[in-house]
Known about the structure:
Layout: H1 4-14, H2 21-28, H3 32-35, H4 42-55, H5 66-83, H6 87-93, H7 102-113, H8 119-148, H9 154-162, H10 172-175, H11 178-193, H12 211-215
Amino acid sequence: MFDDESLGVAALEIGLQQVTVAAVAKHIGVRSSALYRLVSSKDDLVLLAIEQIARTIVPVPDEGTWQDVLRRFAAQTWRLCETYPGFNEALVNIPGAFAAFDTNAAYLANLLTKRGISAAQAGFATDLVGDMVLGTHRWKQGLERSWAAAETGRARTRLVAQGHQPARQLPPEVVDGTFLQRKVDFLITSLEHHWPELPSLAAFCADRLPPELRQDPLRFRKPSQPSDEQ
């Protein structure tokens, strides 16, 4: 027997970029036709995998300033992209994927509103930082693919001609995270001077979180899941 959770686990074990209905069916030992009572496509399986990821996220600590909260959120999002290849593409390309993180987004907005930020401003900031991290990671993936491509490829030739970055390896500031940190710091400095609001995301404010999750955010996480902070 299998259910949504076991299919999501199987999809993660196969990998977001490699998962197919046939691959999951083989992984759990059933025929592909058996899966169609719960899913109708590869995208459905990716969504189930994304939901599994969302369930195991350890919320950022309720410590420090709002700047600290946003920096930890950026670092956490980057780790997810690194841990689950294809994660950022799934969030961007599959309708509804972001909805799996509604509760996590509400908790993050709760942390920001507790630090004097309006719910609409919190919505704007989390959207801005999240988009920046996902976009930066997609750029990093593009560079990695170019290093693995044929030496005579047009893209490789153009990279060599640019001269401002190495043609055979990732720039060191990308590898050590300095590039991401600088971009996050720039966004935070900008918000310190002018912080727009995004009312459409204000629904993720603290009063939309279940009270028990506000009191104990680690209940988001399954007991067997190690903390991101370890």
